[in-house]
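Technical note accompanying the year-one report. For the benefit of new consortium partners, we illustrate the data format agreed upon in the data management plan: each record pairs a sequence with a structure-token string. No post-processing was applied to the example shown here.
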Amino acid sequence: MHVRKILFIEGSVNALITVSKITVGLMTVSAAVIADAVYSLTDLANNIFAWLALKVVESPADSSRPYDHQKFEQLVIFALASLLTIVAFEVIVNAVERFGQPVEQSMLGLVILISSLLTNIGLTLWKGHWAKRLDS
């Protein structure tokens, strides 16, 4: 039960961060903020996939295929790794296409990125606390 609650809280924070970055990125037309918003979206997807994987893994095993649920966990990890690879590739392609263009500076973009960094540090410390407490 604790893991589901942790995933829900983390997912809610990631959703808030993602929406904030997308909003600021579109307002400031900042490629850096938009790219970071896409990365935050992958964090949110990670939470959703983890939630779904947890539901499948915790469900009772089928007597004819008792190990299928454990395989699902590896499939989810592969899907997340693939998603992160695609996002990284897209960010690189976008950066190469924009190379040489003047960089717009935005105080609002900087504030959202620093706020996001501090929030993610806090979230990481909080998850580390729960990982130790749950021996996970």
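Partners are asked to follow this layout when depositing records. The chain has a mean pLDDT of 84.
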